[in-house]
Design goal:
The complex is a heterodimer of chains A (503) and B (525). Chain A is of the alpha/beta class. Chain A has helices at residues 29-36, 109-115, 139-146, 195-204, 219-249, 252-273, 314-330, 356-361, 373-378, 385-406, 467-478; strands at 41-47, 64-67, 87-94, 158-161, 181-184, 187-189, 337-340, 409-410, 413-414, 419-425, 437-442, 453-456, 465-466. In chain A, β5 (181-184) and β6 (187-189) form a beta hairpin. In chain A, α4 (195-204) packs parallel to α7, α5 (219-249) runs antiparallel to α6 and α7 (314-330) runs parallel beside α10 (385-406). Chain B is globular. Chain B has helices spanning 48-59, 81-84, 89-106, 110-113, 122-133, 140-156, 161-174, 176-179, 188-193, 200-212, 218-226, 232-244, 249-259, 280-298, 320-323, 338-343, 352-364, 392-399, 403-417, 452-460, 467-477, 487-497, 502-511, 513-516, and strands spanning 44-45, 180-181, 196-197, 442-444, 447-449, 517-518. Chain B is mainly alpha-helical and 525 residues long. In chain B, β4 (442-444) and β5 (447-449) form a beta hairpin. The chains are: A alpha/beta (503), B mainly alpha (525).
Chain lengths: 503, 525
């Protein structure tokens, strides 16, 4: 067995492969507009298994809001204190892709997870038949594609996560349990849990330490980079040629496999062979972090590393993943990152590592008894210690990432000001419901969203609002993505912006 | 395969509960070839286990780069081609990094890989190494192209002999001919018109990946080259050889490990406060014990009919803590395996319904479907209250009062409750923590039982016991969820097998037309 935390013997010349030049003249007008102003970023953060009722302590009544001093955090959202002025909590939004009223559908973990950023019901779309898995394009990928971000940054978007030990998959595909970003209805973009792989991808795409606004390539590094790129080009040319030749000999059914192979390896080629401007980030500069540790990709449901096994520590993993996301944003490797703090229906043992400060903040609360997330915390007694502690830890992890972005100056403010971090759960709580989801927005997306407040909608069915409209608002009002319609609504209502969250 | 997962690869939508599988299909041999439909396997990537094993056998490396490549598990076994035919940028990047890591590792001692010292032997290296990497001989064009790339690398990429050899090795490790299991028809239309008999190399790969989760070895490749492997008798001899080879352990780890979910014991968590003997060593011993148990049905002489009655190794010192309280002869067979009893429990208590479901799914290939639109409440909430569960049977009785739930539970619960003498790590008990006595008697479809052995005896008579392994093996080996056209072939396997051990069943598989032929559907054109 591999040992976690041991560095593999990597002989590659990390840090010398350079990024492709951005060809501004080839970009569509909308992209140029974004490229010329301060960049905007979208970081949806998924967390699983709902939250305990204590989450809503201090929430405003239906269809009302609290702002500034009237807006207070509670024991679970407390870690947001340092970024409270840039935080907007939203309550009583549902994901109305399917109806889970009493006597309605069984809202499984994976079905809810799959709908998190797509707002459609995968079961209704065909689900996991064993032959195919179908969903719909996700909110983040709509932004990537409509703004053609793949042409703006070396990597169009990234998907990362901490799911070292996934739970049971509720009889459905990995794609409904370990994925929130979908490139299309049939192309799940699975999260990477291995920090070393995320790091290699960013360095391979050109991330290189540089002070703000400085971009003079070192001639020796440039020459080495050109040689490395030429070798990579030779390898990938040969591989792509193999696949093209093979495709011609295959049946129509297998040609699809080769098409995907070609698309994927051409993207590897783009990242590994272009020598152009050193990618030194935007106005924030670029600081490449030390090479991080490796974490294996779990083999399947209920397999992988739990806390403490082979040296695995979730807190360390989260710290490093936060550093990598901050580096990706700072170095402008990508502007859209979806982050899964854990996989759907996680059974991870959080009890073993959550810091004392959280237990203290919750009045000395402890897990008590068995400590696996889904089995014991989500389905334990109401507001049990484990459920509260895990929830608070998720908030703390997101708050720490927000603080990193807030420490990067940009324009008159910080990188966080031009970002929308969206912390969204796929379920309400122990009931598995997908109504009244706990939602937190951090960063105003360039002054577009309200901050330092808590906006509450209503659970009254006739006037209920849904996450599909939240994404629609972010897509259009923050990113100008010209989206006409996003997600499904069981009653077929058209999208409408959530004006209550707009500044 | 997956606790908490109500479906399983054994589900082929062929049977519900409690119907037995029909065994009345006409065997396909001798029928008009235009109607013979052995199906096909999609071009698919090696899964990560196969990738690890293949680079081990190809390169002699100890690296396991597949552990860092994203897994794409969907319904069925992890050999399911529907998941493995797809690829994304993250996976491609994983292969790209893995290829570099592998050549860096192997070329530290290049002489162990090839004696080729200079440019004169490069063609020979490409021919021999290439044939192993692609699991078939390379054609002249392929060889010349790689030799040409070697020469270009020396001339223009600043690489010496060693570097250029590494360069073309890396190309071969990234080629779809290496990364994918391919069965390429000489002519697509021909393979639609009628079934195509697979060639020796294709059969060699089907066999080695089924039994070793790895590439064919030299003897197998020689039989492919000589043409002997297309003979059923030769294939069947090779089954014996492969199963007794140390690499045959993969068949236990990967096939049985998924079929009976044993793989998941290795990640299982039990509450150490409630079960002080629980440890990572204990769960590893449980998995090993399960492998040993299944091995006697593979290479040992034990017949599958004894799955539920075979003796258990209760003297295994590594499992002494689990067996400590067992009365003499208390348990036997699969249902008594500590691994099974553990992986079907929650961390803090047994889960009888789940035990029943896993038993039915894995032993009888019977899928339990949650009724459409039914919200299954957590057991702790049964009866409307939310309390600590001290007596699982009592709590389950409350849960079953709901008529909607009763139909499934009437089948599942007797099995699970019949195993209540075994706690969440398979340790024998006669009372619950709160002092309530354990009641483990019941009634399964009219047949009464009072303990595990009697329950096992009832299940052993079920007509679904023998058809189940054929379906599982076919689905695993053919990398697909079986459909209606596969049903007669599975039935044929079961009929000709007529029990015996799983080694015998593998011989039926390799003689089966679905294994030796392929035929494309009209949509392939």
């Amino acid at each position: 067995m591999h040992k976690f935390m041991t560095r593999r013997n990597i002989l590659r010349g990390a840090g010398v492969v350079l990024a492709m030049p951005v060809l501004h003249s080839l970009m569509p007008r909308g992209v140029r507009a974004q490229a010329q102003g301060l960049p905007k970023r979208f970081i949806p953060v998924y967390y699983c298994n709902g939250v305990p009722p204590a989450w809503w302590d201090g929430a405003p009544p239906d269809n009302s809001s609290l702002f500034d001093d009237g807006f207070t955090l509670n024991a679970l959202t407390g870690p947001l204190e340092a970024v409270k002025a840039k935080t907007l909590i939203v309550s009583r939004l549902g994901n109305w892709a399917f109806h889970s009223a009493p006597g309605g559908l069984e809202p499984s973990h994976s079905r809810c997870c799959a709908a998190t950023l797509t707002c459609v019901d995968t079961d209704a779309k065909g689900g996991d038949s064993g032959d195919s898995t179908t969903n719909s394009i996700s909110a983040d990928q709509v932004i990537v594609q409509n703004l053609n971000l793949g042409m703006v940054t070396p990597i169009g978007s990234m998907q990362v996560g901490l799911g070292s030990f996934p739970g049971a998959f509720d009889a459905r595909s990995y794609a409904y349990n370990q994925v929130v970003s979908w490139k299309s209805a049939t192309e799940p973009l699975k999260r990477m849990v291995n920090p070393k792989a995320v790091f290699d991808m960013m360095v391979g795409a050109g991330a290189m330490t540089a002070a703000p606004e400085q971009a003079t390539p070192d001639p020796a590094a440039m020459q080495a980079a050109q040689l490395a790129a030429a070798r990579n080009q030779s390898v990938l040319d040969a591989v792509i040629e193999d696949a093209e030749g093979l495709k011609l000999r295959l049946s129509k059914l297998d040609q699809q496999a080769m098409d995907q192979f070609l698309t994927s390896f051409r993207e590897v080629e783009m990242q590994a062979t272009q020598v152009g401007n050193i990618l030194t980030g935007g106005s924030a500069g670029c600081q490449v972090i030390p090479e991080p540790m490796v974490v294996p990709e779990p083999g399947g449901p209920m397999q992988g590393l739990n806390q403490g096994e082979e040296g695995y520590d979730r807190q360390t993993h989260a710290n490093v993943m936060n550093d990598l996301i901050a580096m990706a944003i700072q170095c402008d490797v990508t502007r859209v990152i979806s982050y899964m703090l854990d996989d759907a229906r996680s059974e991870f043992d959080y009890n073993a590592f959550i810091a004392e400060e959280h237990r203290t903040a919750l009045g000395g609360m402890d897990f008590g008894g068995a400590s696996n997330f889904h089995g014991s915390a989500q389905h334990g007694p109401e507001n049990n210690g484990g459920y509260q502690l895990i929830t608070r830890w998720f908030v703390d992890t997101v708050a720490k990432l927000a603080l990193k972005l807030d420490a990067m100056p940009e324009g008159d403010g910080t990188v966080l000001d031009n970002t929308v971090m969206l912390m969204v759960n796929s379920q309400h709580g122990a009931n598995h419901d997908n109504n009244d989801l706990p939602v937190v927005l951090i960063g105003s997306g360039g002054g577009v969203l309200k901050q330092n407040g808590h906006v509450a909608y209503t659970l009254t069915e006739a006037s209920m609002r849904h996450t599909r409209d939240l994404y629609y608002t972010i897509q259009n009002n923050v990113f100008g993505a010209n989206v006409a319609s996003f997600g499904d609504h069981v009653s077929g209502e058209p999208n409408a912006a959530l004006t209550e969250i707009l500044a | 395969m997956d606790p908490g997962n109500p479906t399983n690869p054994n589900d082929m939508n062929m049977d519900g509960i409690p119907d037995d599988m029909s065994v009345t299909q006409t065997p396909p041999q001798g029928v008009d070839p235009t109607t013979l439909n052995p199906g096909f396997v999609l071009a698919r990537r090696l899964n990560n286990t196969e990738y690890n094993n293949t680079v081990r056998d190809l390169l002699g490396t100890a690296l396991r780069p597949g552990d860092f490549i994203q897994a794409t598990t969907i319904t069925g076994f992890d050999t399911n081609a529907s998941a493995l035919s797809g690829i994304n940028t993250a996976i491609a990047t994983g292969y790209f990094q893995a290829a570099q890591d592998l050549v860096d590792d192997v070329f530290q001692n290049r002489a162990a890989l090839t004696p080729c010292n200079d440019a004169t032997c490069v063609q020979g290296f490409v021919e021999t190494f290439g044939a192993r990497a692609y699991r078939r001989p390379l054609d002249t064009t392929e060889v010349q192209r790689l030799v040409g790339i070697y020469n270009t690398a020396v001339a223009t990429l600043g690489l010496d002999h060693e570097g250029a050899l590494k360069h073309i090795t890396k190309i071969m490790l990234l080629s779809p001919h290496f990364l994918y299991r391919l069965e390429v028809d000489p002519e697509v239309a021909g393979a639609v018109a009628q079934p195509r008999p697979l060639g020796g190399y294709e059969l060699a790969s089907r066999l080695s990946y089924t039994l070793w989760s790895s590439m064919p070895d030299a003897p197998l490749s020689q039989l492919a080259a000589s043409g002997e492997l297309v003979n059923v008798a030769t294939l069947q001899q090779q089954v014996d050889r492969l199963l007794t080879d140390p690499r045959g352990r993969a068949f236990l780890d990967d096939f049985f490990g998924q079929w009976f979910s044993i793989r998941q014991v290795l990640s299982h968590q039990a509450d150490p406060d409630l079960y002080p003997s629980w440890s990572t060593d204990l769960r590893a011993a449980m998995a090993q014990d399960a492998n040993t148990f299944f091995a006697q049905f593979v290479t040992g002489g034990r017949a599958w009919t004894e799955l539920l009655s075979a003796p258990l190794d209760t003297t295994n010192p590594a499992l002494a803590a689990v067996y400590a309280n067992d009365p003499a002869g208390a348990r036997s067979g699969f249902l008594g395996l500590p691994a099974f009893l553990t992986l079907t429990s929650r961390a803090e208590r047994t889960a009888p319904t789940f035990r029943g479901r896993v038993a039915l799914e894995s032993v009888l290939c019977t899928k339990i479907e949650v009724p459409a639109n039914l919200m299954v409440p957590d057991l702790a909430e049964a009866g409307g209250d939310q309390v600590e569960i001290t007596n699982v049977r009592e709590k389950l009785e409350v849960h079953r009062q709901d008529q909607q739930c009763a139909s499934c539970h009437a089948i599942l619960d007797p099995i699970g409750l019949g195993l209540e003498n075994y706690d969440a790590i398979g340790h024998y008990r006669t009372s619950y923590e709160n002092g309530d006595p354990v009641v483990a008697n019941g009634d399964l479809m009219g047949a009464p039982f009072t303990n595990l052995n009697e329950l096992s005896a009832i299940l052993s008579t079920d007509a679904r016991l023998l058809p189940c392994p054929s379906k599982m093996l076919m689905s695993y080996s053919l990398s697909r969820i079986l459909g209606p056209t596969d049903e007669p072939y599975a039935t044929q396997m079961t009929t000709t097998w007529a029990g015996g051990n799983i080694g015998d069943l593998v011989k039926q598989l390799v003689a089966n037309d679905t294994f030796r032929f392929r035929r494309l559907p009209a949509e392939a054109l």
